[in-house]
Amino acid sequence: MGSKASSLCLHFLLLLLLSGTVLSVHWPVKSLPGYSGDLPFNLETGYISVDEIEFFYYFVESQGNPGADPVLLYLNGGPGCSGLNGFFYQIGPLKFNITDYTGGLPTLMYEPETWTKTASIIFLDAPVGAGFSYANDSAAWTTTDTQAASQYNDFLRSWIDEHPDFSTNPVYIGSDSYAGINLPILAQDIINSNEAGVEPTIYLKGMVLSCPHTNTDIETNAKVIFAHRMALISDSMYESAKNSCNGDYVDTTTAACTESLSAITQCIAEISVTSTLDPDCTFLSPKEKEEEEEKEEKAARRSLRQNPIRSSLSLPSSITNHKDFYCHNFPYLLSDVWGNDEGVQEALHVRPGTVKIFFRCNVSLSYTVDTDDAVAYHKNLTDTGLQLLVFSGDHDMVIPHNGIEYWITTLDLTLDTDWRPWFVGGQVAGYTRRYTNDGYRLTYATIKGAGHSPHEYKRKEVFDMFDRWIHYYPL
């Protein structure tokens, strides 16, 4: 390139920066701090501009047949959890070595049960403010459920436009936890945009929903039933609440109902809601401890509404490897340590100064909930021919499986395969049921022994489930 051309390019880039507009860019990542040698998969990171938002993503190309395998856009919950949450702890190709961790930069290991063995996956830092995604304008930091879904639609179209090799691949969208509220809205936005002729076309084939937040009232009511089924409350406590509250545990209209729910709340207060089999982690940072105590004071008034998941812990280093003090959430700390390392951010090509502190889950977003019920979106989608996989851990009390099973029945689908066990390695991995509506198909599955975000508890079982489903095999 001649000096005159170079000067023009530099001048053009300077104008873009001065105007506040940033080009969407991406880079190959061959190695990462903490991992020995070159990565055994193709990783790309980059930014996609959506209006004034710079969405940061991590793209792992399928290790199978990337030219034909589906592309999965994966959204984490919170809202505010980074795509690295899914990358490291749920469905991605790397994980932290927690066995030998003694401090400093964590080391990384290959995860053989990665979904990237059979699909190309875009892990997105979303909504704005999550991970390394940021906004160029102060007003753009504020978003809602429906606005976020619209932004994800724009992001995905821009990403496909910049990756023409994947322009005809089948596309799936996936979510975990809170992002379940965004997913059917996003699916509807994609379909509407396709029908309106917006280019490029997204060849949306289906959705994958893990322990999805879908309807706040249904999930709240389901917790009382779940607690009774799990023998966390007695028959008499359940019958008292059921009779005094008329089966509605959301709006407490009588003193008897309030009293019954208060007794239930006290009974399950020391149980881990993310997994009733796990110890309840009490080692919290001071700020989180104060917030948790304030939430507990409001618990009776809010009935059994969902508490935010504890996103980080402050465990004394001398007991982190002691089995009697182990907490399922401890490994979450390592992503904060890793993500705030300058060498890591340089390797990922994070723009310096755009994010002051990286959090696995940023709980301080300017985010407004404007959708408490996404069932109507699911109902509309039953005529689209989409394929759905909905799964839940059967020990999850954040989004109880019985609540999910209830809203699925309200879709009025045809039962294709009734409740039966499904197997991995000759052992029951959970139970499944399948529904249809012309070309539309919904497969529901429980993961036996798993808590909230089942992939974190049963990596092999969840991968086998996904691998069968994505290739149209029954569980």
UniProtKB/TrEMBL annotation:
GO terms for molecular function: acyltransferase activity, transferring groups other than amino-acyl groups; serine-type carboxypeptidase activity. Keywords: Carboxypeptidase, Hydrolase, Protease, Signal. Residues 1-24 form the signal peptide. It comes from the Eukaryota. It holds the Pfam family Peptidase_S10. GO terms for biological process: proteolysis; secondary metabolic process. Transmembrane segments: none annotated. Residues 284-305 are annotated as: Disordered. The keyword Protein biosynthesis does not apply. Gene3D superfamilies: 3.40.50.12670, alpha/beta hydrolase. Belongs to the peptidase S10 family. This is Putative peptidase S10, serine carboxypeptidase, alpha/Beta hydrolase. The lineage of its organism: Eukaryota, Viridiplantae, Streptophyta, Embryophyta, Tracheophyta.
